Amino acid sequence: MDVRLRAGLLRVPGLLCLVHAMARIGAEQEVENLSGLSTSPGKDIFVVRDNGTTCLMAEFAAKVMVPYDVSASNYVDLITEEAEIPLSRGAEVRGKCGTTESELQISWLDKVYTLKLYFVKEGHNTTKRQEAVWKLNKIQFVYDSSERTYFKDAVNPGKHTASSHHLSALLTPAGKSYECQAQQTISLITSDHQRTVTLLLSEVRIQPFDISADFVFSEEHKCPVDEREQLEETLPLILGLILGLMIVITVCIYHIHHKLTANQIFRCLCRDSNDVSQ
């Protein structure tokens, strides 16, 4: 075989590897942790960008409540404690955007804790027609109970994964962002089905699809709790305005009635005086 041909064939795998690596680099989506820009000390901001354009944005405050066992004072029995793990500022973030599937992965304390959020966009049947919506359909929380910042004297420490599959959380019409200031509770089950881990989210603003402007959320879709609270706040004002309007109308009617009655009495007196003079 020709030496030059053999050399060319030997270079082919290397070229293929180089092309594959370059394709992967070109396909990578950049992520940014913008939590330092948040006006709330407990709220984090994460952005995923594809080809220089924002494709996923998320703002929220989060903490995870994890039950774990510790030894009782007799060193025989076990009692259950609960670790309260807040999402730390400066967390490492990874993300992936797609047409119908997106994900956000957040790790902190040297990847001891990792929160993974998975989003999906799909058709949704309504009474009138099928509409496109997106939702949070899966959550995973990976933690290590041997970490001593939040787990004090845990018995049988080790790595665990808590998950919630087939969710329909944060259901939002396609092209809109989800907004909810109220605290929301989502339950996750550990892989051994022995523990229920609780994810608490608040001050939430998320949009994993169809962002039309860079670093700008689309029109918000408020959660039912916020809408109800807003109604509860505005209802007393509306009732007060209605009551005030009714009082004004009543006073006006009384004033008109009083004026008409006075005019009628005056005319009667005038008529009686004329009769007397005649």
UniProtKB/TrEMBL annotation:
Q: Which residues form the signal peptide?
A: 1-21
Q: What is its main location?
A: other
The membrane topology term of the UniProt record is: Single-pass type I membrane protein
Any Gene Ontology CC annotation: recycling endosome
Entry keywords, A to Z: Cell membrane, Cell projection, Cytoplasmic vesicle, Endosome, Glycoprotein, Membrane, Signal, Synapse, Transmembrane, Transmembrane helix
Location relative to the cell: Cell projection, Dendrite; Cell projection, Growth cone membrane; Cytoplasmic vesicle, Secretory vesicle, Synaptic vesicle membrane; Early endosome membrane
Keyword check for Membrane, yes or no.
yes
Listed transmembrane segments: 237-257
Q: Which residues form a coiled coil?
A: none
Instruction: Tell me which Gene Ontology terms the entry assigns under biological process.
Output: establishment of protein localization to organelle
* Annotated InterPro entries: Lamp2-like_luminal (IPR048528), Lysosome-assoc_membr_glycop (IPR002000)
Tell me if ATP-binding is a UniProt keyword of this record: no
User: What's this protein's function?
Assistant: Plays a role in short-term synaptic plasticity in a subset of GABAergic neurons in the brain.
Return the PANTHER family for the record: LYSOSOME-ASSOCIATED MEMBRANE GLYCOPROTEIN, LYSOSOME-ASSOCIATED MEMBRANE GLYCOPROTEIN 5
Name the record gives this protein = Lysosome-associated membrane glycoprotein 5
Species source reads Chrysemys picta bellii (Western painted turtle)
